[in-house]
Amino acid sequence: MDKQKTLIALNSLNKNTLMETLEIEFVDVGENFVTAKMPVNSKVYQPYGILHGGATAALAETVGSCASALFVDTKTKIIKGIELSINHLKSKKEGIVFGIAKPIHKGRTTHLWEIRIVDEDDQLISICKLTNIVLDKK
């Protein structure tokens, strides 16, 4: 896997999407993980001026779904998220959060990912689990 080419390809998919709106950017990829970052600013706040759980969920689903897509033939298969659970452990007012997806299970038809949302000091903000289904393209 060419890391730079993969990151360029992943980031090119963000145009005109929620990922572009939230300024999500893929920053690292390896054989068993994908990492993306998202700035914490007023675009992702809830009314109390802290990171909105929905923005965190968008980061988690983005990184976990893209991770699944890297492990299948996207010419014949499509990935869809079917369940996302998140525990928010710490609030965040400013800076950057990173979503790091690592596999728990990569089966033929389902993938289960653990996504850790951490800040720039590696403080755990949220812990997530994402289940994806792998379907044949129609």
The gyration radius over C-alpha positions equals 14 Å
Strand content: 35-45%
Distance between the terminal alpha carbons, to the nearest Å? 27 Å
Largest sheet: 6 strands, antiparallel
Strand order of the largest sheet: 1-2-4-5-6-3
Instruction: Compute the number of helices.
Output: 3
Coarse structural class:
alpha+beta
- Average pLDDT for all residues: 96
Shape: globular
Question: Which residues sit in consecutive blocks of at least 5 with pLDDT less than 50?
Answer: none
Number of strands: 6
Model description:
With 138 residues, this protein is of the alpha+beta class. It is 23% helix and 44% strand. The chain is built from 3 helices and 6 strands. Strands 1-2-4-5-6-3 form a 6-stranded antiparallel β-sheet. Strand 1 (25-30) and strand 2 (33-40) form a beta hairpin. The longest helix has 18 residues, at 53-70. The model has no long low-confidence stretch (mean pLDDT 96).
Keywords for this structure?
138 residues, alpha+beta, six-stranded antiparallel beta sheet
Strand-helix topology:
Layout: H1 3-12, H2 18-21, E1 25-30, E2 33-40, H3 53-70, E3 77-88, E4 95-106, E5 110-119, E6 124-136
Antiparallel strand pairs: 1-2, 2-4, 3-6, 4-5, 5-6
